[in-house]
Amino acid sequence: MIKASIPWPKKTTPIGLDIGSRSLKLVQLCTEHRRVIESSRWDWNGADDWFDASSSDPNSTNDAFVLALKNALTGRNFEGRNVVTSISGNHFFLQNIRVPKGGKAQLEAAVHREAASRIPFPVEESEIRFWDCAEVRQGDTSMREIIVFACHRPDIMCIAQSIVAAGLNPIVVDVEPAALIRSYAAQNRRDDERGLRVMLLHFGYGVTSVIIAENEDALFVKYLDVGGRQIDEAIAEQLQLGVVEANALRKRKQLDQHIAKTLQDAGRPVIEKLLSELSMCIRYHSVTFRGRPISKLIISGGEVSTDVAETLEQRLGLSTKLSNPFRRTENAPVVDTPSQWEVAVGLARRQVVAS
User: Fold this and answer.
1) What's the pTM value of the predicted model, to 2 decimals?
2) Residue among 12, 16, 3, 75 nearest 346 (CA)
3) Does position 60 have pLDDT exceeding 80, yes or no?
4) Residue 58: which pLDDT band, with cuts at 50, 70 and 90?
5) Interatomic CA distance for residues 320 and 131, integer angstroms
6) SS (HEC) of the chain
7) What digits encode the pLDDT tens for the residues 281-325?
8) Do domains 2-90+153-188+326-348 and 193-322 have the same CATH topology?
9) Which of 134, 205, 274, 282 is found 20 to 30 A from 229 (Cα to Cα)?
10) Residue 355: its pLDDT value, please?
């Protein structure tokens, strides 16, 4: 949502920095996006509300984030210091709205009027962006379906200043859904996949994002209050454990079959909630965007698993597969869950014009 033109050696992309609620992930690619130059992951306990809303200092930083980012960079061979990062649904206002058709200036004015009456912070302190998705029918009237993103400017500045404090140069603060769409499109370039409508599900620890897109054009974006944290809380309550202990147990590589079933049963209500939310998203799409149906579901994020993918496929009736953002790149990091790197890779792939 902010952009600065800063020159850098064009042999590589800027560093894509994914600020997750449990880890930082950094990826840099060669200019042609065919090879990973460097990557790094660092665990941290980033709170969803890590911005200090009470601070009036435009140069305020998050010290825990700065330390974690410095640790993630230690011993790594990233080229240059320019960074593209993003904000997720925890930190911006997101809503689908409808406005009358019109020219570019009319459309922008209508979107800002609608957004000003809905966003939870002063409009003069906001960065507002929107995606013009499609023409839809509302009764007998043709309207434009719009996805509005709005962020409180002090939050963006806190991100930027924290990155600067770690010794890097933030040149773009993007929105997470854009990175997810970009990464998906790079993986699926076959002609027979063009024109298909897909649902992208990024299953994170704090929240889960849902995107319905056609090629690189989004039709629908929503964040769900469903994720790994809710699964941990359900397990903790069922087994009388702390949330940290529940997470450690759930992430253990080998489990007794009885314990594994107990964990699965404890987390089932969370998956049921996810299924219910996804069903409503699919219904909204079918009613609003008539024509092509959703052809498949692509899932990514640190909380994905083959079990979750199979459950979603069976219950939703959509062909489902796990994403791999390194599918077309060489020198990819050897990791258990490649799909958790989806956002970082999508950010590294963002086109930035150097001055």
Assistant:
1) 0.90
2) 16
3) no
4) low
5) 26
6) CEECCCCCCCCECCEEEEECCCEEEEEEEECCCCEEEEEEEEECCCCCCCCCCCCCCCCCCCHHHHHHHHHHHCCCCCCCCEEEEEECCCCCEEEEEEEECCCHHHHHHHHHHHHHCCCCCCHHHEEEEEEEEEEEEECCEEEEEEEEEEEEHHHHHHHHHHHHHCCCEEEEEEEHHHHHHHHHHHHCCCHHHCCCEEEEEEECCCCEEEEEEECCEEEEEEEECCCHHHHHHHHHHHHCCCHHHHHHHHCCCCCCHHHHHHHHHHHHHHHHHHHHHHHHHHHHHHHHCCCCCEEEEEEECCCCCHHHHHHHHHHHCCEEEECCCCCCCECCCCCCCHHHHHHHHHHHCCCCCCC
7) 999 999 898 778 999 999 999 998 888 999 999 999 999 999 999
8) yes
9) 282
10) 46
- On the question of pLDDT at 54 being above 80, the answer is no
Q: Which CATH number fits domain 2-90+153-188+326-348: 3.30.70.330, 3.20.20.70, 3.40.50.150, 3.30.420.40?
A: 3.30.420.40
Task: List the structure tokens of 291.
Answer: 């024509």
* Residue written as token pair 């009388």: 240
- What does the block give as tokens for 133? 């998705």
Q: Return the CATH architecture of domain 193-322.
A: 2-Layer Sandwich (3.30)
Contact call for residues 134 and 34 (beta carbons, < 8 A): no
At 242, which amino acid appears?
Answer: G
* β-sheet bridge partners, residue 152: 126
Provide the terminal-to-terminal Cα distance of the chain, rounded to the nearest Å.
Answer: 19
Inter-residue contact 203 to 308 (CB < 8 Å)? yes
Encoding tokens for residue 346? Answer: 């999508």
Class of domain 95-150: alpha beta
CA angle in degrees (0–180, nearest 5) for 27-207-325: 30
User: What are the sequence ranges of the domains in the chain?
Assistant: 2-90+153-188+326-348, 95-150, 193-322
